[in-house]
Design brief:
This protein is mainly beta. It is globular, with a radius of gyration of 21 Å. Strand 12 and strand 13 (182-183) form a beta hairpin. The longest helix is centred in the middle third of the chain and has 5 residues, at 324-328. The strands form 11 sheets. Strands 1-32-31-30 form a 4-stranded antiparallel beta sheet, with no helix packed on it. Strands 2-3-4-5 form a 4-stranded antiparallel beta sheet. A 4-stranded antiparallel beta sheet has the order 6-7-8-9, with no helix packed on it. Helices cover 4% and strands 39% of the residues.
């Protein structure tokens, strides 16, 4: 258990701002939810930068950056980051929760979607360090986050928005123990759920396709979306976690519509038939069998489910056989990600830990602040838990190799504290990473699938909870110093092979 701890250690936070969530005695539901973080190389210099949402009401940007601002940090390439929020125009749009990243107009500059409680905003990257608001159909009510993907394979990125519940601060119910004047954040059952939104992108202009696509037929209490290809048919599918109601798996029919197959696929509930407090999610091959699996976080006493893709649109709940159930029973998790942290050729799992309640100690023996957790892949279908870092109310997490040393790092947010980075430590194992540049398909190459031997990974920035991660596709290689064959399946349908590729570097590949 100590081996992986040495490979992912917390360092002093390089970010001076605090994640303000403005906790009140009334325990407004939104206060426990902020903390999204997004990886975005906004200036195109090859170093992944970071954007953080801030939950507090945002004042108008002045000469001095208000303490409540969202933050944009430029990666200086030496393990430090510079606050460039003032110039960027990204200070804030309201009570912001999460973020998504994608180059929706194919101009080579990644754009930013910011999800909020009363309104959400699409920001266009101007390519000069500044962003401006872009036109998008109104996103009302409470959006948690979203993700960019090309669901119709027309070459431009569409936007899926995850929405949570109707929330009225004037009608906040009392939850807790009135006799002790002990108030807690309420169970989702006290709020009415919302449908998710799908916006189709046609040459940089968005149209609400929620109804015609079938997405709007299903009301949930959405927390996260992750994209994969459940049946490897080349049409990206969307998995949505729902808080205490059944999860959704939207299978892409390839004709502009989706079929919700969560229940028959076996991922709507856990093995006990329970709808969990599902939170963050990732949708990628975890057991090296070439099929996209599902992992999600939940709350204490629920465990964090691992659904293994069996093919034919069905999954098996492997939470207990994989030993993840026992390892996560006492945890509450938010963001998560499936990455190979020790570069041994098998993907591991990172979990951002922290209870929903900030006063858990007053009504139970549990602690509200928790450590983060690595589930190390033992390569035999089981995982070993490795707690890392100090306890906190962790929320968002985003993944990238921020210092270009070949090890995956994790940026994590904490309610009431500054963000931190868990820096990956370079091991003796080899690695390789790919920057894919689409031409015939979307320029971001979102959804492209890369295979090395038994390993499969794909381009997707929608990872975890309210967060976005790097679009670079990373592989651990173990003792392999040269890769015999790399196969790339592009969203356009084209297949490309690369042979005898030297390891320990980032390879840029253009679609043929």
């Amino acid at each position: 258990m100590t081996r992986l701890l040495l490979l992912l250690a917390a360092a002093a936070a390089p970010f001076p701002h605090t994640l303000n969530h403005y906790e009140t005695p009334e325990k407004h539901q939104i206060e426990t939810m902020p903390g999204g973080v997004a990886v975005i190389d906004f200036d195109g210099d090859g170093w992944d930068d970071l954007f953080f949402t801030n939950g507090a009401p945002q004042p108008t940007l002045a000469k001095k950056i208000p303490a409540d601002c969202n933050r944009l940090y430029r990666n200086l390439g030496n393990g430090t980051f510079a606050d460039v929020t003032a110039k960027s125009g990204l200070c804030g749009t309201g009570y912001d929760i999460g973020a998504a990243v994608g180059d929706y107009d194919n101009d080579g500059h990644p754009d930013l979607f910011v999800a909020g409680v009363r309104a959400s905003t699409l920001f266009h990257n101007n390519g000069d360090g500044t962003f401006t608001k872009a036109a998008i159909p109104n996103v009302d009510d409470w959006a948690i986050g979203g993700g960019f993907f090309d669901y119709d394979n027309d070459g431009d990125l569409d936007l899926f928005i995850v929405r949570y519940v109707h929330w009225d601060p004037a009608a906040e119910p009392f939850c807790g123990d009135a006799t002790q004047n002990l108030r807690t954040y309420c169970h989702p059952q006290f709020y009415t759920g919302l449908t998710n939104r799908l916006y189709r992108n046609d040459n940089g202009k968005f149209t609400d396709a929620s109804a015609q696509s079938g997405i709007a037929k299903h009301t949930g209490k959405g927390m996260a979306v992750a994209f994969g290809d459940v049946d490897n048919d080349g049409h990206p599918d969307a998995f949505v976690t729902n808080d205490t109601v059944p999860n959704f798996l939207f299978r892409n029919r390839g004709d502009g519509t989706f079929e919700e197959i969560g229940d028959p696929a076996g991922i709507a509930f856990n093995d006990d038939g329970r709808a969990l407090s599902s939170m963050g999610a990732d949708f990628r091959d975890l057991d090296n069998d070439g099929r996209d699996d599902l992992f999600l976080t939940a709350l204490h006493n629920e465990t964090f489910p691992f659904y293994r893709n069996l093919g034919r649109n069905t999954f098996r709940d492997m939470t207990y056989p994989s030993k993840i159930g026992k390892a996560t029973m006492a945890y509450s998790g938010w963001s998560c990600g499936i990455y190979d942290f020790d570069n041994d050729g098998w993907k591991d799992i990172f979990i951002a830990g922290g209870d929903v309640q900030t006063n858990t100690e007053k009504f139970s023996s549990r602690a509200s602040k928790q450590t983060n957790l690595i589930l190390h892949n033992n390569t035999d279908g089981t995982f070993a838990p490795n707690p890392i870092g100090a306890p906190a109310w962790h929320r968002g997490a985003a993944f990238a190799d921020f210092n270009h040393d070949g090890a995956i790092d994790v940026a994590v947010t904490r309610l009431g504290e500054s963000p931190l980075i868990h820096w990956g430590t370079k091991s003796a194992n080899h690695w390789i990473a790919f920057q894919l540049q689409g031409t015939k398909s979307n320029r971001d190459a979102a959804g492209a699938r890369v295979t090395i031997g038994t390993q499969t990974n794909r381009v997707s920035t929608a990872v975890g909870y309210a967060s976005a991660s790097t679009r670079t596709v990373h592989f651990g290689l173990g003792k392999t110093a040269q890769v015999p064959l790399v196969t790339i399946h592009w969203p356009s349908g084209a297949t490309q092979e690369l042979k005898q590729i030297r390891a320990d570097r980032v390879v840029t590949v253009r679609e043929p």
